[in-house]
Specification:
This protein is an all-alpha fold. The chain has 4 helices and no strands.
Length: 99
């Protein structure tokens, strides 16, 4: 991968969508809660759901930025990116806890 391609990937992965900070918190809470249900979690509480969802949105947005333009996404795209990232995050945490 040359420097120009690496710079383009980095720029796409750090570009936020049009949702805004409050939107990320709301979507993060919903995505964190849904990911906990998908991964058979015992419920982490609303604050932890928001944290898991927002971090998951960053992870999911980064992973999806290699395939699609994440800056063009709205509420629904951001939710699915957050859900994807949250499920991956919870899966990794589950692996670490088992070891």
């Amino acid at each position: 991968m040359d420097l120009m391609a690496a710079t383009e990937y980095l720029a796409r992965s750090t570009t936020t969508t049009s949702v805004g900070l409050i939107g990320y918190i709301i979507i993060g809470g919903l995505a964190g809660w849904a990911a906990g249900k998908i991964m058979k979690g015992s419920g982490s509480g609303i604050l932890m759901n928001i944290v898991i969802g927002v971090v998951g949105a960053l992870v999911g947005g980064f992973l999806l930025s290699f395939f699609v333009d994440t800056a063009a996404g709205g509420w629904i795209f951001t939710f699915f990116a957050a859900l994807l990232g949250s499920v991956i995050l919870l899966w990794i945490v589950g692996l670490v806890r088992r070891s």
